[in-house]
């Protein structure tokens, strides 16, 4: 004789098992769509479960002057300015990076700027989810304007980070720059 409770439990476990297999299939299909036609043997996907993200450079792009390409890691002396900007100049920032070994989910950029120990700007930008490939990715920010005026001039400290959804940090770097009148 079978109890009704045991049938419900058995059915519940069957349904849960089906949903788990279904979810795994959906995740596998999603990863295959992201990977596309990537040569998995060339990228060594599967050797490590964690994605490897390498930030190659940061480029400041201006309307009125040539681009300023800063290789990462930054090569400036401690507390010396890496570059100088003119007050009120318009610019865009472009990051170049590579992804290898696995998919990186929810890659985001955070940046904070301080002047004389006071935080004057902070930003967070979601870059997206990226699959491994040999060619580098680029991400370009919206146009921004440096502050202008007498009070805006001086030395600024910047700290940037690249993190994924799991909180893994791929880059934590800092540098100084200066804003001048001309």
TrEMBL record:
Molecular function terms, GO-annotated: GTPase activator activity; Rho GDP-dissociation inhibitor activity
GO cellular component assignments: cytosol; membrane
Short name of one Pfam family: Rho_GDI
Family membership noted in the UniProt record: Belongs to the Rho GDI family.
Superkingdom as given in the UniProt entry: Eukaryota
InterPro entries: Ig_E-set, Rho_GDI, RhoGDI_dom_sf
Protein name in UniProt: Putative Rho protein GDP-dissociation inhibitor
Record keywords, A-Z: Cytoplasm, GTPase activation
One GO BP annotation of this record: Rho protein signal transduction
Location of the protein in the cell: Cytoplasm
Organism: Rosa chinensis
Chief location of this protein within or outside the cell: cytoplasm
